[in-house]
Amino acid sequence: MILDCDPGHDDALAIMLAAADARLDLLAITTVAGNTTLDKATLNARRVCTIAGISRVPVAAGCDRPLVAELRVADDIHGESGLDGPAFGEPTVPLAGEHAVALMRRLLLDHPEPVTLVPTGPLTNVATLLRDHPEVAPKIREIVLMGGSTERGNISPYGEFNIFVDPEAADLVFRAGLPVTMIGLNVTHQALVTPDVVARFRALGTPLAEACVELMTFFGSAYERVFGLADPPLHDPIAVARVIDPSLVACVPAPVAVELTGAHTRGATVVDLHRRTGALPNAQVALDLDVPRFWDLLVDALTRLSGSPDAASPW
Protein backbone atom coordinates (compact mmCIF):
# COMPACT_ATOMS: atom_id res chain seq x y z
CA MET A 1 0.00 0.00 0.00
CA ILE A 2 0.87 3.67 -0.35
CA LEU A 3 -0.24 6.00 2.46
CA ASP A 4 -1.04 9.52 1.24
CA CYS A 5 -1.46 11.83 4.22
CA ASP A 6 -1.31 15.35 5.69
CA PRO A 7 0.03 14.86 9.26
CA GLY A 8 -1.96 15.85 11.47
CA HIS A 9 -2.36 14.01 14.78
CA ASP A 10 -4.55 11.18 13.51
CA ASP A 11 -2.36 10.82 10.39
CA ALA A 12 0.61 10.30 12.70
CA LEU A 13 -0.98 7.22 14.24
CA ALA A 14 -2.09 6.03 10.80
CA ILE A 15 1.58 6.10 9.73
CA MET A 16 2.57 4.06 12.77
CA LEU A 17 -0.17 1.48 12.21
CA ALA A 18 0.65 1.12 8.50
CA ALA A 19 4.35 0.64 9.17
CA ALA A 20 3.97 -1.74 12.12
CA ASP A 21 1.55 -4.37 10.83
CA ALA A 22 3.23 -7.29 9.08
CA ARG A 23 0.18 -7.83 6.88
CA LEU A 24 0.96 -4.62 5.01
CA ASP A 25 3.84 -3.82 2.69
CA LEU A 26 4.09 -0.04 3.05
CA LEU A 27 5.76 1.10 -0.18
CA ALA A 28 5.74 4.85 0.46
CA ILE A 29 4.39 7.70 2.55
CA THR A 30 3.34 10.67 0.44
CA THR A 31 2.23 14.04 1.74
CA VAL A 32 -0.31 16.62 0.61
CA ALA A 33 -1.43 20.03 1.83
CA GLY A 34 -4.47 19.76 4.08
CA ASN A 35 -4.38 19.77 7.86
CA THR A 36 -1.39 22.06 7.44
CA THR A 37 0.78 23.34 4.63
CA LEU A 38 2.71 20.89 2.49
CA ASP A 39 6.08 21.82 4.00
CA LYS A 40 4.81 21.29 7.54
CA ALA A 41 2.95 18.08 6.68
CA THR A 42 6.09 16.66 5.08
CA LEU A 43 8.25 17.65 8.04
CA ASN A 44 5.69 16.04 10.35
CA ALA A 45 5.73 12.78 8.37
CA ARG A 46 9.52 12.69 8.69
CA ARG A 47 9.25 13.44 12.41
CA VAL A 48 6.81 10.59 12.95
CA CYS A 49 8.95 8.17 10.96
CA THR A 50 12.02 9.20 12.98
CA ILE A 51 10.48 8.66 16.42
CA ALA A 52 8.84 5.40 15.31
CA GLY A 53 11.97 3.96 13.68
CA ILE A 54 10.41 3.90 10.20
CA SER A 55 13.58 4.34 8.19
CA ARG A 56 13.12 2.20 5.09
CA VAL A 57 9.94 3.75 3.66
CA PRO A 58 10.41 6.68 1.26
CA VAL A 59 8.67 9.94 2.16
CA ALA A 60 7.76 12.20 -0.76
CA ALA A 61 6.09 15.61 -0.87
CA GLY A 62 3.18 16.13 -3.26
CA CYS A 63 0.71 18.87 -4.13
CA ASP A 64 0.84 22.08 -2.13
CA ARG A 65 -2.66 23.32 -2.98
CA PRO A 66 -6.06 22.00 -4.07
CA LEU A 67 -6.89 21.60 -7.77
CA VAL A 68 -9.11 24.70 -7.85
CA ALA A 69 -9.75 26.31 -4.47
CA GLU A 70 -7.44 28.11 -2.08
CA LEU A 71 -5.93 25.93 0.64
CA ARG A 72 -7.69 25.93 3.99
CA VAL A 73 -5.77 24.35 6.85
CA ALA A 74 -6.98 23.01 10.20
CA ASP A 75 -4.69 24.85 12.59
CA ASP A 76 -7.58 25.20 15.06
CA ILE A 77 -7.41 21.42 15.53
CA HIS A 78 -3.79 20.50 14.82
CA GLY A 79 -2.00 23.66 15.97
CA GLU A 80 0.47 25.94 14.24
CA SER A 81 2.88 23.11 13.38
CA GLY A 82 0.16 20.70 12.29
CA LEU A 83 1.40 18.30 14.96
CA ASP A 84 1.42 20.32 18.18
CA GLY A 85 2.02 18.53 21.46
CA PRO A 86 5.46 16.90 21.71
CA ALA A 87 8.55 19.09 21.31
CA PHE A 88 10.03 17.16 18.38
CA GLY A 89 13.72 17.11 17.63
CA GLU A 90 15.09 17.28 14.12
CA PRO A 91 14.05 14.33 11.94
CA THR A 92 16.68 11.98 10.58
CA VAL A 93 14.47 10.34 7.95
CA PRO A 94 15.24 12.03 4.61
CA LEU A 95 12.90 13.34 1.95
CA ALA A 96 12.73 11.42 -1.32
CA GLY A 97 14.05 13.30 -4.32
CA GLU A 98 10.90 13.12 -6.45
CA HIS A 99 7.38 14.50 -6.38
CA ALA A 100 4.85 12.29 -4.62
CA VAL A 101 2.76 11.83 -7.77
CA ALA A 102 5.83 10.73 -9.74
CA LEU A 103 6.81 8.33 -6.96
CA MET A 104 3.29 6.87 -6.80
CA ARG A 105 3.26 6.38 -10.58
CA ARG A 106 6.65 4.67 -10.56
CA LEU A 107 5.79 2.37 -7.68
CA LEU A 108 2.46 1.38 -9.21
CA LEU A 109 3.91 0.61 -12.64
CA ASP A 110 6.93 -1.24 -11.26
CA HIS A 111 5.16 -3.34 -8.64
CA PRO A 112 4.38 -6.93 -9.68
CA GLU A 113 0.86 -6.83 -8.22
CA PRO A 114 -1.82 -4.15 -7.78
CA VAL A 115 -1.31 -1.67 -4.94
CA THR A 116 -3.85 -0.19 -2.52
CA LEU A 117 -3.85 3.59 -2.07
CA VAL A 118 -4.85 4.89 1.35
CA PRO A 119 -5.39 8.67 1.27
CA THR A 120 -6.09 10.19 4.68
CA GLY A 121 -5.94 13.84 3.62
CA PRO A 122 -7.40 15.83 0.73
CA LEU A 123 -7.43 13.80 -2.47
CA THR A 124 -5.30 16.19 -4.52
CA ASN A 125 -2.36 13.84 -5.04
CA VAL A 126 -4.54 10.87 -5.96
CA ALA A 127 -6.72 12.91 -8.33
CA THR A 128 -3.63 14.37 -10.00
CA LEU A 129 -2.21 10.87 -10.43
CA LEU A 130 -5.41 9.56 -12.02
CA ARG A 131 -5.87 12.63 -14.21
CA ASP A 132 -2.29 12.89 -15.50
CA HIS A 133 -1.35 9.20 -15.57
CA PRO A 134 -4.40 7.12 -16.53
CA GLU A 135 -2.09 4.21 -17.34
CA VAL A 136 -1.77 3.48 -13.60
CA ALA A 137 -5.46 2.66 -13.12
CA PRO A 138 -5.09 -1.10 -13.76
CA LYS A 139 -2.31 -1.23 -11.13
CA ILE A 140 -4.54 0.17 -8.35
CA ARG A 141 -6.20 -2.59 -6.33
CA GLU A 142 -8.46 -0.17 -4.47
CA ILE A 143 -8.59 3.26 -2.87
CA VAL A 144 -9.47 3.25 0.83
CA LEU A 145 -9.92 6.87 1.83
CA MET A 146 -10.69 8.69 5.04
CA GLY A 147 -13.14 11.39 4.11
CA GLY A 148 -16.76 12.31 3.75
CA SER A 149 -19.72 11.34 5.85
CA THR A 150 -23.17 9.82 5.54
CA GLU A 151 -24.37 12.39 8.07
CA ARG A 152 -22.72 15.51 9.50
CA GLY A 153 -19.69 17.51 8.55
CA ASN A 154 -16.87 18.89 10.65
CA ILE A 155 -15.66 21.94 8.68
CA SER A 156 -19.14 22.95 7.49
CA PRO A 157 -22.57 21.56 8.41
CA TYR A 158 -22.32 18.90 5.70
CA GLY A 159 -18.69 19.02 4.60
CA GLU A 160 -16.00 16.75 6.05
CA PHE A 161 -12.60 18.47 6.04
CA ASN A 162 -10.67 16.26 3.59
CA ILE A 163 -13.41 16.45 0.95
CA PHE A 164 -14.21 20.11 1.63
CA VAL A 165 -10.60 21.22 1.10
CA ASP A 166 -10.50 19.79 -2.44
CA PRO A 167 -13.96 18.67 -3.59
CA GLU A 168 -12.92 18.72 -7.26
CA ALA A 169 -10.24 16.14 -6.50
CA ALA A 170 -12.70 14.02 -4.51
CA ASP A 171 -15.23 14.20 -7.36
CA LEU A 172 -12.59 12.93 -9.79
CA VAL A 173 -11.66 10.02 -7.52
CA PHE A 174 -15.23 8.90 -6.88
CA ARG A 175 -16.00 9.04 -10.60
CA ALA A 176 -12.82 7.24 -11.70
CA GLY A 177 -14.44 3.82 -11.92
CA LEU A 178 -11.99 2.27 -9.45
CA PRO A 179 -12.87 0.31 -6.28
CA VAL A 180 -13.28 2.95 -3.57
CA THR A 181 -14.03 2.53 0.13
CA MET A 182 -15.13 5.64 2.02
CA ILE A 183 -14.29 5.79 5.73
CA GLY A 184 -16.38 8.77 6.83
CA LEU A 185 -17.07 10.70 10.01
CA ASN A 186 -20.08 8.51 10.78
CA VAL A 187 -17.60 5.67 11.44
CA THR A 188 -14.57 7.55 12.75
CA HIS A 189 -16.64 9.13 15.51
CA GLN A 190 -17.09 5.62 16.88
CA ALA A 191 -13.32 5.50 17.68
CA LEU A 192 -13.07 7.99 20.52
CA VAL A 193 -9.76 8.52 22.31
CA THR A 194 -11.09 8.11 25.83
CA PRO A 195 -9.00 8.37 29.00
CA ASP A 196 -8.87 4.55 29.02
CA VAL A 197 -7.29 4.56 25.54
CA VAL A 198 -4.73 7.16 26.59
CA ALA A 199 -3.96 5.07 29.66
CA ARG A 200 -3.26 2.06 27.43
CA PHE A 201 -0.79 4.14 25.44
CA ARG A 202 0.90 5.44 28.59
CA ALA A 203 1.15 1.93 30.08
CA LEU A 204 3.53 0.93 27.28
CA GLY A 205 6.12 3.06 29.06
CA THR A 206 8.20 4.02 26.03
CA PRO A 207 9.21 7.38 24.52
CA LEU A 208 7.10 6.63 21.44
CA ALA A 209 4.04 5.83 23.55
CA GLU A 210 4.56 8.99 25.60
CA ALA A 211 4.74 11.01 22.39
CA CYS A 212 1.40 9.49 21.38
CA VAL A 213 -0.03 10.45 24.76
CA GLU A 214 1.10 14.05 24.23
CA LEU A 215 -0.30 14.07 20.71
CA MET A 216 -3.67 12.77 21.85
CA THR A 217 -3.77 15.15 24.83
CA PHE A 218 -3.33 18.16 22.53
CA PHE A 219 -5.77 16.69 20.00
CA GLY A 220 -8.35 16.11 22.72
CA SER A 221 -8.04 19.64 24.08
CA ALA A 222 -8.55 21.04 20.57
CA TYR A 223 -11.67 18.94 20.00
CA GLU A 224 -13.10 19.98 23.34
CA ARG A 225 -12.44 23.66 22.60
CA VAL A 226 -13.78 23.61 19.02
CA PHE A 227 -16.53 20.97 19.14
CA GLY A 228 -17.27 20.54 22.84
CA LEU A 229 -16.21 16.88 22.65
CA ALA A 230 -14.25 15.60 25.63
CA ASP A 231 -12.89 12.61 23.67
CA PRO A 232 -11.61 13.20 20.13
CA PRO A 233 -12.31 10.78 17.25
CA LEU A 234 -9.23 9.13 15.75
CA HIS A 235 -10.14 9.29 12.08
CA ASP A 236 -7.27 8.23 9.84
CA PRO A 237 -6.02 4.95 11.33
CA ILE A 238 -9.42 3.41 10.61
CA ALA A 239 -8.70 3.52 6.87
CA VAL A 240 -5.46 1.62 7.47
CA ALA A 241 -7.26 -0.83 9.76
CA ARG A 242 -9.79 -1.55 7.02
CA VAL A 243 -6.95 -2.60 4.70
CA ILE A 244 -5.31 -4.75 7.38
CA ASP A 245 -8.52 -6.53 8.37
CA PRO A 246 -11.66 -5.69 6.38
CA SER A 247 -13.83 -7.40 9.01
CA LEU A 248 -13.09 -4.51 11.40
CA VAL A 249 -15.15 -2.07 9.33
CA ALA A 250 -18.60 -3.00 8.05
CA CYS A 251 -19.45 -1.41 4.69
CA VAL A 252 -22.31 -1.32 2.22
CA PRO A 253 -22.21 -0.49 -1.50
CA ALA A 254 -23.77 2.87 -2.31
CA PRO A 255 -23.66 5.69 -4.83
CA VAL A 256 -21.58 8.64 -3.59
CA ALA A 257 -21.54 12.07 -5.25
CA VAL A 258 -19.51 15.11 -4.20
CA GLU A 259 -21.32 18.45 -4.08
CA LEU A 260 -19.27 21.09 -5.93
CA THR A 261 -21.54 24.13 -6.20
CA GLY A 262 -23.93 24.34 -3.25
CA ALA A 263 -23.76 27.63 -1.36
CA HIS A 264 -24.14 25.75 1.92
CA THR A 265 -23.15 22.23 0.90
CA ARG A 266 -19.96 22.48 -1.20
CA GLY A 267 -17.72 19.58 -0.23
CA ALA A 268 -20.56 17.40 1.04
CA THR A 269 -20.61 13.71 0.18
CA VAL A 270 -24.11 12.82 -0.97
CA VAL A 271 -24.44 9.14 -0.02
CA ASP A 272 -27.53 7.48 -1.46
CA LEU A 273 -27.91 4.70 1.11
CA HIS A 274 -31.53 4.07 0.19
CA ARG A 275 -30.93 4.13 -3.59
CA ARG A 276 -33.35 6.98 -4.29
CA THR A 277 -31.38 8.44 -7.21
CA GLY A 278 -31.19 5.32 -9.33
CA ALA A 279 -27.42 5.74 -9.59
CA LEU A 280 -25.23 2.66 -9.43
CA PRO A 281 -22.96 2.19 -6.39
CA ASN A 282 -19.47 3.59 -6.91
CA ALA A 283 -18.10 2.99 -3.41
CA GLN A 284 -18.15 0.80 -0.37
CA VAL A 285 -19.37 3.09 2.41
CA ALA A 286 -18.31 2.33 5.97
CA LEU A 287 -21.07 2.21 8.57
CA ASP A 288 -19.77 0.40 11.67
CA LEU A 289 -16.46 -0.22 13.42
CA ASP A 290 -15.48 -3.05 15.75
CA VAL A 291 -14.17 -0.58 18.32
CA PRO A 292 -12.48 -2.95 20.83
CA ARG A 293 -10.61 -4.83 18.10
CA PHE A 294 -9.56 -1.56 16.47
CA TRP A 295 -7.94 -0.29 19.67
CA ASP A 296 -6.26 -3.66 20.22
CA LEU A 297 -4.81 -3.45 16.71
CA LEU A 298 -3.45 0.05 17.28
CA VAL A 299 -1.99 -0.67 20.71
CA ASP A 300 -0.29 -3.79 19.33
CA ALA A 301 1.24 -1.67 16.56
CA LEU A 302 2.59 0.87 19.04
CA THR A 303 3.99 -1.98 21.12
CA ARG A 304 5.91 -3.36 18.14
CA LEU A 305 7.24 0.04 17.10
CA SER A 306 8.22 0.91 20.66
CA GLY A 307 10.54 -2.09 20.63
CA SER A 308 12.21 -1.10 17.35
CA PRO A 309 15.96 -0.51 17.68
CA ASP A 310 15.60 2.32 15.15
CA ALA A 311 13.05 4.27 17.18
CA ALA A 312 14.33 7.64 18.38
CA SER A 313 13.27 9.79 21.28
CA PRO A 314 11.02 12.60 20.04
CA TRP A 315 12.92 15.01 22.27
From TrEMBL:
Residues 1-296 form the Inosine/uridine-preferring nucleoside hydrolase domain. GO terms for biological process: purine nucleoside catabolic process. Keywords: Glycosidase, Hydrolase. Pfam families: IU_nuc_hydro. The keyword Hydrolase applies. It comes from the Bacteria. The keyword DNA repair does not apply. GO terms for cellular component: cytosol. Gene3D superfamilies: Ribonucleoside hydrolase-like (3.90.245.10). GO terms for molecular function: purine nucleosidase activity. PANTHER family: INOSINE-URIDINE PREFERRING NUCLEOSIDE HYDROLASE, URIDINE NUCLEOSIDASE. This is Ribosylpyrimidine nucleosidase.
